[in-house]
Amino acid sequence: MNTDTMKPVPHLTVDEIVQQERRLTLRRFTHSDAWALGSMLVEMAHLREAPVAIDIRRGAQQLFHAALPGSSADNDAWIDRKRRVVERYGESSYLVGARHRAKGTTFEESSRLDPDLYAAHGGSFPITVVGAGVVGSVTVSGLPQAEDHAMVVEALERFIAR
């Protein structure tokens, strides 16, 4: 992996992840926006030689999917599991897992949800639109969970700033 183009991934507290979610709210989210955000993530992943799969959904509809070299079908399975956490809780998969860890437990132990269907590991982030709430998700899988989460956050920051 090309670490020269990767930002260091800090350890985040529950409050810091909550603040990210509040800050990364969109004014709208269209099919074209999904393509632009997904293309931005693909470009970031290529520059970093990151072996990831990327998925963007609005509701039940998949608007964007890409699998980069080095990713596998396992990454798609992780995407589905992390995305289901966002759909169920309306929060990032990383935040849901961090909340459980902060309580001294794990999502797998406490949620009573099937771990084959749900994974509270970093990488899936809610797409939140002002006045509408959570309308979808953007998910990256293939790196350690903090790096998957950080890549999505960085892409959303760039997307909002453009």
Mean pLDDT: 94
Structural class: alpha+beta
- Topology pattern, helix = H, strand = E: HEHEEHHHEEH
As for the number of domains, it is 1
Shape: globular
Total number of beta strands = 5
The biggest beta sheet reads: 5 strands, mixed
Helix content: 40-55%
Helices, by number, come to: 6
Distance between the termini: 27 Å
Q: Give the spatial strand order of the biggest sheet.
A: 1-4-5-2-3
The CATH topology label is Beta-Lactamase
CATH homology-level superfamily? Haem-degrading domain
Radius of gyration: 15 Å
Portion of residues in beta strands equals 15-25%
In the CATH hierarchy, the architecture is 2-Layer Sandwich
CATH class: Alpha Beta
Low-confidence stretches: 1-5
Pfam families: HbpS-like
Family: Belongs to the UPF0303 family.
Organism: Streptomyces pristinaespiralis (strain ATCC 25486 / DSM 40338 / CBS 914.69 / JCM 4507 / KCC S-0507 / NBRC 13074 / NRRL 2958 / 5647)
InterPro entries: PduO/GlcC-like (IPR005624), PduO/GlcC-like_sf (IPR038084), YBR137W-like (IPR010371)
